[in-house]
Queue: 2 jobs
Job 1
Amino acid sequence: MYGSRSRQVCMTCHFFRHHPGPECIPLLTCHLHQGLIAHGEHLTHRCSGWTEDLHRQRGWAPEAA
C-alpha cells in the first residue's frame, strides 16, 4: 500500500471490508491481502490491486455512509 490523494483509496476498493470486531470496534480488512488495514489508512492508501466494482462505479459506497 502507498499514500494516495486520489479517490482510489482502500475504502472505495472492491476488496475493502468493514466488520464489527470485539466490543463493536470496527475492523477494516482487505480480502485481496487477507489482512487488517491499519486505522485511518483506508482513507489515504491504496495498492496495485485496487479495483472498482459495479456499485461504486455508479456512485454507491455503503462503507462511506
Note: DSSP finds one helix and five strands in the chain.
Job 2
Amino acid sequence: MRLLITLDGRNGELMLDRDGDAYRFTYQLETGERVERAASLLEVEPGIYSVLVNGRSHEVKVVPGPDGFYVDLNGERSVVEVRDPRAVSRKGPAGLGDGRVNITAPMPGKIVRVLVREGDNVQSGAGLLVVEAMKMQNEIKAPKAGRVLFVKPSEGDTVSAGEVLAAIE
C-alpha cells in the first residue's frame, strides 16, 4: 500500500506491507532520505498500540485530529496527515472536495474559546475553537476554506474525543 504522509509539516511517501500483525515499511522524505523498518503492531485498546521494533516495545497513542492524527510516542506528540494518492488526484492537493466537512474534537477536553460563529467565512487553516486537554490548549483549525454551518459547543463546555464541534461548507 502506498500512502502520502505529512509528519510535523514534512512530506514523505510510505510504502506499507502487512502480514497479520507484522508490518514492513519504507518511508521516504522529500529530501530523498529513506528509512526501512519491520515492526509488530497490536492494538491493545482503541487508539492505543503496542509496537515492537528491533526488540524494543513502544506504546503509541493515536487520536484523530482536524489535520490528520495526533500520535504520542515516548512523550512526544506529532501531527500526522495521511493521504491516499488516489484521493488526492481526484480531489486536488488538499484531498478535500466540495461539500460539508465536520470538524471533530481530537481528544476529550474543555472548550476555552470559540473563535467563529455560524455564517462566518473562514480560510483554510483559520482557528475555529480552542480545546484544553491535559493542561495544554489546542487550536482546532479549518481543514478548508468555506462558510461555518454551525458551532455546537460554547466556552466552558466539555467535549469527548471524536465529537462533532462544527461544520464547514
Note: Confidence is low (pLDDT under 50) at residues 88-96.
